[in-house]
């Protein structure tokens, strides 16, 4: 029995090490953790591999049924979670855009459209610049380009607006915080909830009025910009969900976007 | 239904994956302590006075930072080695916050040195009190009986190979020291990770079932907002490096409530509750689960009231 116990627990540790390595290699790491931890995850996989081998050699120590059961169930849950994030899966939580974390450095710092220049940044960076502008009296960039998911708002007194939002993930999915900003399009554009867009806009003061709230399943906190309204000059509908999460927030150019 | 299940699975997996490196690190350090740190060496290096030991425990996180998940297995091992509770308990509670990484992330999230200092204070005070109270007991008296060495003969009834998982299963002479470290670490990791997983699943369930706007109901009242944010911190079980950013996003809540969120989380959350019950005697675990939230609540409300008074002071007065 002790021999079986050491085999079972050793196998569980090796299985966990294998799952971590597979996660890093899968291209879906970003669906769970900030990609800056990939190296740490691989190092942990190596440590668990060594621990697993040591456990296999540790034949005199018995196994504990509870920890074996819990770890087995967890591995099953984790494999299910990974499979559910595959592109096209019905279970994907926040969009299945491919891992483009390496592309942020290759995208241009500024876009040019119709002779105008737009500063590329993400919604969290926009909020950071806006907070700094309030504190120091500085001005916001005249034109910005932000990417995000649409949340259609009810038409209030003819003010056509929608929310553009994205999730900021600092460490893991569990700490995801939604950041959102209201957008007023120049023309009537049929948009649907969940559509991904890139908005080229002029940031301006938000008129007084109620600020909409954001309620996303699994997301405990949401920061809806209470001071800035994006006056859209152009809206580009993206064919698929881009990277749903913001993993990096910079306070100067080139912004993470 | 499949979306909800997938969300629950993703959240639980994410919480566990985030904590696992620190749990593994804590287990490895625990293994190193078990194999390479004889009890008499530790006893010789310890400050002699309780006050000195507490100061050591409170400040050790600055040189040996560790996440809250990793601190519990390390402290378990230290207590078994005879490190006084005066040092071990404050280290366990304070190190996940009072360390360069977390203090820097707190500053980054709030851009306010006052919030950083308030967070450190709201952690150091309960850590000091609990160190003073629990430090009176012998180190092994804090641990669950199955984990503590026998009072009479530490070797006869409870020794490597007994299968309790509390120490290296390979005794002296069995395998090299490296293998013994790894085998000890494996036991430690297996034991603590099971409870971590249970706590993570509870936190994920809470996140799936609780809509975000529920929290906004409590933001207007200081007493309710502090309590609500503390409950949220315990339930979400966010790591101490990231919780400041989550707290900062609750823009409508007073600063005192946000400080309470970031102070209580690293000392008590669903993962830690499970680990405390695993490692400590029931009464000790109960003290660890009651005293920090009570103290943090009182201190945070006092902070909030003081801030309200200061903001209402007539112009010209400090």
Helix content of chain A: 25-40%
Number of helices of chain B: 15
Q: How does the overall form of chain B come out from the CA principal axes?
A: globular
Secondary-structure element string of chain A:
HHHEEHEEEEEE
How is the main sheet of chain A built?
A: 5 strands, mixed, barrel
Distance between the termini of chain B: 57 Å
Of all chain pairs, the largest interface belongs to: A-B, 69 and 65 residues
Uncertain parts of chain B = 149-171
Helix content of chain B: 55-70%
Strand fraction band of chain B? under 5%
Structural class of chain B: mainly alpha
What's the average pLDDT of chain A? Answer: 85
Write down the oligomeric state. Answer: heterodimer
**Overall mean confidence score, pLDDT of chain B:** 84
Question: Number of helical segments of chain A?
Answer: 4
Which class of secondary structure composition applies to the elements of chain A? alpha/beta
Would you count the extended β strands of chain B for me?
0
Order of helices and strands of chain B: HHHHHHHHHHHHHHH
What's the total count of β strands of chain A? 8
Question: Features of this protein?
Answer:
heterodimer, A: about 260 residues, alpha/beta, 4 helices, B: about 325 residues, mainly alpha, 15 helices, about 70% helix, about 0% strand
């Amino acid at each position: 029995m002790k021999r079986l116990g050491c085999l079972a627990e050793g196998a569980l540790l090796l299985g966990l090490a294998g799952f971590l390595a597979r996660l890093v290699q899968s291209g879906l790491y970003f669906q769970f953790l900030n990609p800056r931890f990939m190296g740490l995850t691989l190092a942990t996989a190596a440590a668990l591999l060594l621990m697993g081998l040591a456990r296999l050699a540790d034949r005199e120590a018995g196994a504990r049924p509870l920890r074996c059961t819990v770890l087995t169930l967890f591995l099953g849950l984790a494999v299910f979670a990974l499979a559910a994030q595959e592109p096209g899966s019905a279970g994907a939580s926040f969009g299945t855009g491919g891992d483009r974390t390496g592309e942020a450095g290759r995208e241009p710092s500024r876009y040019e459209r119709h002779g105008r220049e737009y500063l590329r940044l993400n919604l969290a960076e926009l909020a950071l610049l806006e907070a700094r502008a309030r504190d120091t009296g500085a001005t916001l960039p005249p034109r910005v380009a932000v990417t995000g998911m649409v949340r259609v708002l009810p038409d209030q007194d003819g003010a056509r607006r929608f929310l553009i939002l994205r999730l900021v993930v600092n460490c893991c999915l569990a700490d995801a915080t939604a950041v959102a900003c209201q957008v007023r399009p120049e023309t009537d554009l049929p948009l649907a909830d969940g559509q991904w867009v890139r908005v080229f806009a002029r940031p301006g003061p938000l008129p007084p009025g109620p600020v909409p709230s954001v309620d996303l399943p699994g997301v405990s906190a949401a920061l809806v910009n209470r001071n800035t309204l994006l006056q859209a000059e152009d809206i580009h509908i993206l064919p698929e969900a881009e990277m749903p999460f913001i993993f990096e927030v910079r306070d100067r150019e080139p912004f993470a976007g | 239904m499949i979306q909800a299940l997938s969300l629950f699975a993703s959240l639980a997996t994410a919480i566990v994956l985030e904590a696992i490196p620190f749990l593994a690190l804590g287990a490895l350090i625990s293994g190193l302590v078990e194999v390479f740190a004889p009890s008499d060496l530790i006893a010789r290096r310890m400050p002699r006075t309780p006050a000195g030991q507490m100061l050591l425990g409170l400040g050790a996180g600055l040189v040996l930072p560790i996440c809250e998940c990793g601190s519990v297995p390390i402290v378990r091992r230290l207590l078994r080695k005879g490190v006084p509770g005066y040092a071990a308990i404050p280290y366990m509670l304070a190190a996940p916050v009072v360390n360069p990484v977390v203090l820097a992330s707190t500053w980054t999230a709030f851009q306010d040195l006052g919030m950083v200092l308030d967070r450190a204070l709201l952690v150091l005070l309960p850590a000091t009190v609990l160190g003073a109270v629990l430090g009176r007991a012998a180190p092994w008296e804090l641990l669950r009986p199955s984990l503590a060495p026998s009072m009479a003969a530490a070797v006869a009834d409870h020794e490597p190979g007994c299968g309790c998982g509390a120490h290296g299963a390979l005794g002296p002479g069995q395998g090299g020291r490296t293998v013994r470290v790894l085998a000890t670490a494996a036991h430690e990791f297996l034991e603590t990770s099971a409870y971590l997983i249970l706590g993570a699943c509870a936190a994920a369930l809470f996140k799936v079932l609780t809509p975000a706007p529920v929290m906004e109901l409590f933001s207007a009242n200081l007493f309710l907002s502090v309590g609500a944010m503390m409950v949220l911190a315990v339930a979400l079980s966010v790591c101490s490096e990231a919780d400041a950013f989550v707290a900062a996003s609750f823009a409508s809540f007073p600063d005192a409530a946000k400080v309470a969120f970031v102070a209580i989380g690293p000392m008590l959350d669903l993962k830690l509750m499970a680990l405390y019950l695993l490692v400590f005697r029931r009464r000790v675990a109960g003290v660890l689960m009651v005293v920090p939230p009570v103290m943090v609540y009182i201190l945070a409300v006092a902070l909030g009231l003081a801030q309200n008074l200061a903001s209402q002071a007539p112009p010209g007065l400090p």
